[in-house]
Amino acid sequence: MNRISSVELLRFISSFMILIWHYQHFFYPYNKFSSINIFDDIKVQPLFNNLSIFYEYGDLGVQIFFTISGFVFSYIYLQRSDKPLLKEFAVNRFARLYPLHFVTLIVVLLAQIYSMNKFGNYQIYSVNDTYHFILNLFFISGWGFEKTSSFNGPIWSVSIELIIYVFFIINIRRNKFYHIFIIFITFLILRKANILDQINLLNFNLIIDCGTLFYSGVLINFFIDKYKNNKIHLIAGIFLIFLSFIGNFKTFLFCPGLLLLFLSFEKYINNYLKKIFNILGNLTYGMYLCHFPLQIICIMLIYNFDIDAKIYLNVKFLLSYLILVSFVALISFIFFEKKFNILIRKKLLK
């Protein structure tokens, strides 16, 4: 299956948004060694004037990821004449997601144990007990059983997506447009009505948000399959983004609109750029999971070597941090994620 390079670029940008959004972790109250409270003035962060949209709205990168997932999964699986069984789908997802999740979970566990023993406190997230470790271990840390964020906190969004993945694959044989549209509208109504606010067992609203955005991506796949003109994609994308600023359902309009906007440029991307964008796309999962343990390690090292915490205000530190995360993500993909992905699928899909 050919990769869509414009989507790979959008995936990378979404990861970058989250990296900048989480830069606040280097300041108090996340970093216990910092005297700068990030909630007093977020503008102190380096290059704020240039990156303010990411510092202030970078968490939107998660919602964009949900939309991209729906598009990519429908693009891959709905075109197949032999629809995948739940086992095949589950193994593929496990092989792609779990190895790096497990390794980063253990790294965070060890780092937090060291921090508590050495400095008397945990870093960034203060809840790192056995109960929450088990939730993380079984990939259910975002389902609503948790008391708060813990361990490698960003994994919550992947945890939520797993529920929608299962729902998608169970319904994959009913893949007509009207069926997908009904699912999307149902999710949208449930979210708008807020009728599940009183249910405390699961994070229903987050799950419904994920489902709505995921199926908006599925609808975008149907749309570009029917209308193959990039000008139509561009106009539709701009229209949805415009509506997102003036109407309701802002996120649910903005994310698919942004996806359409990127798709409209696909035919203009030359082969050289395609290779670059595909490489950037390969980095996204590693960037997402590795940046958090790297932050914890950086915080402890800087404090341990008695370096002034004002270093986090330095542009050079920001750039060095971003380069480090990208490098670790690249090494992770080439030497770990890719190899374990192939190995697990070979073992479990014999």
Report on this model:
This protein is mostly helical. It has one domain (5-348). It is 69% helix and 0% strand. It is built from 13 helices and no strands. α12 crosses α13 (315-348). It is globular. The mean pLDDT is 91.
Low-pLDDT runs of 5+ residues are none
Helix content bin: 55-70%
The percentage of residues in β strands lies in: under 5%
Report the count of strand segments.
0
Main beta sheet = none
What structural category arises from helix and sheet content?
mainly alpha
Chain-averaged pLDDT: 91
Q: What is the terminal separation in angstroms? A: 22 Å
Give the count of structural domains: 1
What features would you highlight for this structure?
mainly alpha, 350 residues, globular
In short:
The protein is an all-alpha fold. It is built from 13 helices and no strands.
Question: Layout of helices and strands, plus pairs?
Answer:
Blueprint: H1 5-21, H2 48-57, H3 60-77, H4 86-119, H5 130-137, H6 156-170, H7 177-193, H8 204-226, H9 230-246, H10 250-263, H11 271-282, H12 284-304, H13 315-348
